[in-house]
Amino acid sequence: MAAADVEVSPPKAPGLPDYLLDPNATLKDDSAKWRYGRAPDYTNTRKVYEATKTKSHEAASLPNLVENLVKNWEVEASFKPEIDDWRTIDRPNYTFSINGGPPQSAEHMLKVGTYNAIITPNDYYDPTKSDFASSHKTFKRMMPTFAWEVLEVYSGPPTVAFKWRHWGVMKNDYVGYNDKGEKVTVKAHDGPIDIQGITIAKVDDKVRLQAVETWFDPLEMFRQISPSGEVTRTIHVPKPGEDITTQLHGEGYDAESGTPTDEPESTPLEAKKDFEKVFPSPEMTHEAAVTGPVVPVVEKSGAKAHESVPEETPTSEETASAVHTEMASSTPASCPFLAPSAPS
């Protein structure tokens, strides 16, 4: 049976919060307020992750704990509109910054959206000309699953440094507004989008995120969206009262799911097969996955242009020392950068 078809129960590790042990822990928060009235469905994304990841971290190892923490944080930042419901952050001390930029608050990320919080204005996309809803429609429609994994962890709590990978397949056209106000359209190429970056995160005694600093090349995704450079740019004149999502994607769009009403999502098996076409094996390198044929650059212009039974949440009596002791128990084999003899 394929790994993607097997649901693995979270490991038992007394003293650790469920959001470190189970990537779907926050999806089970029944008392939380959800952006669309219910928890999102990450089934396809999780199955694609299992089928096409490049690393297999041992359960409850430091890389696995970090990976689960970030996945649960992403769920909360994207789908929990009330910050009081976020369990993965130390709210009074939480900030998020990109490439050395100014720290952003959780409130700012909730207002603009996770994509707009990390992308700078460019020739393909401008976060100031988008909003939370339209940004999620633009990227989630183009790439229905966008899996994420930790590649390496360089240090443990309280300052966790790690390298990550974010990947998917461009199944539908990219449509967005650029920094000149033009509507940019790039035809889907059914090929991989595969980006990497580095994050340094400070965490508290409950291993909740505090100051999060991330470095990556925001333009790398767009270079892979349009590897040939062939794009269509037009000026769109919106109708009175027309929201940004409708301007970009038209009327036939399901605002809740982010899926065109006449285009059902792929089944998990179909999604897995799609990924196997462009990621033949987990051992495929990042460079090999994103390298394609070189074709002439043509620019056009004109009139047209996230699941299983949750672990119990640790009680308030579980102390900081228990948490840090558990995380510090990761062996050098599971995280070689923590080995005393590791080269600098």
TrEMBL record:
Residues 311-323 have a biased composition (Low complexity). InterPro entries: NTF2-like_dom_sf, Pathogen-related_defense. Residues 1-20, 233-268, 285-344 are annotated as: Disordered. SUPFAM superfamilies: NTF2-like. It comes from the Eukaryota. This is Pathogen-related protein. It comes from Mollisia scopiformis (Conifer needle endophyte fungus).
